[in-house]
Amino acid sequence: RELGGEVRFGAKLTSLNNPTNGTVKKVTVSYLPTTERGLGSEMTRSINEAAEMRAEMGSEDIECDAVILATGHSARDVYTMLHEEGIPLSPKGFAVGYRIEHPQHLINSLQYS
């Protein structure tokens, strides 16, 4: 918050409100009941109270200068919304990885011997 950012727990981005020239000036979010419960700290209680108040509001328009989309893995709805609003999207490179497991005693002997 000190640098101007804010995390909205339980919020779902529903619109970028027709960005012009690639600049977003306002976003619309809808609020869902938060799942951040019962951790016991004062900060957690204040986050929960704020999230519960927002959930009662239903949705909100937020004016902004920049937006960071931290979508995670299951974000098909976000990308659909971005496409529908005319935001240019490009695929990222495809990567394949693999995992090799070795017995712990082998790792220990290679690393510590």
Q: What would you say about this model in short?
A:
With 113 residues, this protein is an alpha+beta fold.
Descriptive labels:
113 residues, alpha+beta, three-stranded antiparallel β-sheet, 3 helices, 30% helix
Order of helices and strands: EEHEHH
Helical region count? Answer: 3
| N- to C-terminal distance | 49 Å
Strand content: 5-15%
Strand order of the largest sheet: 1-2-3
Weakly predicted, low-confidence segments: 35-40
Helicity level: 25-40%
Arithmetic mean of pLDDT: 76
- The gyration radius over C-alpha positions equals 21 Å
Number of strands: 3
Label the structural class: alpha+beta
What is the general shape? elongated
Give a short account of the largest sheet.
3 strands, antiparallel
Please describe what this structure looks like.
The chain is of the alpha+beta class. It has 3 helices and 3 strands; from the N terminus they run ββαβαα. A 3-stranded antiparallel β-sheet has the order 1-2-3. The protein is elongated.
Question: What topology does this entry show?
Answer:
Elements: E1 11-15, E2 26-31, H1 42-57, E3 59-63, H2 76-84, H3 104-112
